[in-house]
Each structure stands twice: as C-alpha cells, then as structure tokens.
C-alpha cells in the first residue's frame, strides 16, 4: 500500500511538473520557468553586483557622453526597424567596461548590455559592433539565459531562487551571468537574429561574420571568447551568417569604418 501511495504521489507530481513546463513555454517553444519580471529582476541584480564590484571599472555616461550617444544610436537603429518581443518591457541599457584584456560583451536578462573596451578596440568597423550588439540583444530577447542557467545550476536551484528560498544563491548566480555558456542552438539562433535585425538598417547585415573572420585569420578560432562560445565553429558561423544574408536578398550595407574609428578615439 505504501508503495502504491508513493507511486501515486510521484505520478501526480510528474503530471503537475509537465503542466507547469507547458505553461512556462516561451515564445520560441523552449521551457522557461522564469517570468518576464524575473528576467528583469535578475538583470537588475546583475547590474548591482557588477557595478558595485571595486575591480570593475564602468565608464560613467556623464563623463563620456559622445561614446554613449554613439552606442545608443546604434541600439536605436536596431530597435526602430524591428519588432522585438520585449522591446518595450526590457531596459536595453548600455554600459562600457574599461578592461583592455578581456575580449567580451554580454547582455544580461532584462536587456542590460555591456561592452568591454578590449572588444571595442578589437573590432574594425561599426557594422561588426552592430552585429555583436544584435547577437547579444537576441540572447536577452529570446531569454536564452534561462536555458543556460538551467544547465549550469539545475532546476532545484532555480526554483529556490524564484520562490525566494535562497537569496544568497541569487547573488552568486547574478555574478556568473557574464560567464554563461549558451548552447549551440542558442548561439546559432542569435547569429541569425543579428543578421535579420541588421538587414533593414543601413549596416552591412553580416557584420558579426567580420569578427569571426578576424579570429580565423589570426588563428584564434580555438580561443574564441566566452560570450560567443567555440560551438558552432567560427568557420561554420561565418558561412551560416553569409547564407542567411544571401537568403534575405544579399543587400550590400555600410561598414561605417571611419565613424567607428572616431568612436574608438573617444574612449580612454
């Protein structure tokens, strides 16, 4: 009898979990146990942890108004031409981290975008930066962070965070957001959205491919930065981005290289 009762309870819990997962499917069909508000709250926690870290130097927007105006204009060119799922609900706030050794960029849940000066210096043109920005915005808009968090921490930890059982774990998770490794599918999907979002703008829509090509040309494809992962292979990503661009019509856009060089000189 006890065995039957245990089995019955387990069955009920399993059915409940299936129902919960079905209810939590995101717009792209993936399972997401976070609400949109959870994304925003977690993003704010990331901002607090990162920008209060004495080892992280975030450039003040009042001190570097021209640099931030440049980045926000780039962001707005993506938003004005496209319908993002959470264009109005997420922040899409941008900050620059002064770090000349870390080739990195990321977008925290809720649309909090960070660029490291090392990456800005490494890129060669504005379309490449636009491609990176579109890629990172896609991760947030498609809510890929939850997929990565689930793989890294497991459902039990995430449930504790969501239901407020472990505030300390929330802080630890927030501190690691910038180091998340996305899945092959997440990376490929964000690459495709980057091309799609840049296509109606004045930019060369396959700008992100320029970054990968530079890694390949310098023999660094095996050491691609955390934020873009080494899977799928950079060679394959260049081809996939180019194929997507051609499928959209192959319109030739602008690189705005001279304007990008001027932007780089505005940074310390």
Description:
This protein is mostly helical and 268 residues long. The chain has one domain. It is 57% helix and 5% strand. It contains 12 helices and 3 strands. It has a 3-stranded mixed sheet with strand order 1-3-2. α5 crosses α9 and α10 runs antiparallel to α11. The radius of gyration is 20 Å and the shape is globular. The termini are far apart. The relative contact order is 0.13. The N terminus is likely disordered.
List the uncertain runs.
2-23
Mean pLDDT: 83
- Main sheet? 3 strands, mixed
* Largest sheet, spatial ordering of strands: 1-3-2
Question: Which H/E pattern describes the elements?
Answer: HHHEEEHHHHHHHHH
Structural class by sheet pairing and helices: mainly alpha
The global form is globular
The total beta strand count reads 3
Using the CA coordinates, give the radius of gyration: 20 Å
Roughly what fraction of the amino acids lie in strands? Answer: 5-15%
Distance between the termini: 73 Å
**Percentage of residues in helical conformation:** 55-70%
User: Helix segment count?
Assistant: 12
What's the number of structural domains? 1
Question: What distinguishing features does this structure have?
Answer:
268 residues, three-stranded mixed sheet, 3 strands, globular
Give a summary of the structure in a few sentences.
By secondary structure, the protein is mainly alpha-helical. The protein has one domain.
Would you spell out the secondary-structure blueprint of this structure?
Blueprint: H1 2-23, H2 36-51, H3 65-80, E1 93-97, E2 105-108, E3 112-116, H4 117-122, H5 126-141, H6 144-153, H7 155-162, H8 167-176, H9 184-198, H10 207-217, H11 234-248, H12 257-265
Parallel strand pairs: 1-3
Antiparallel strand pairs: 2-3
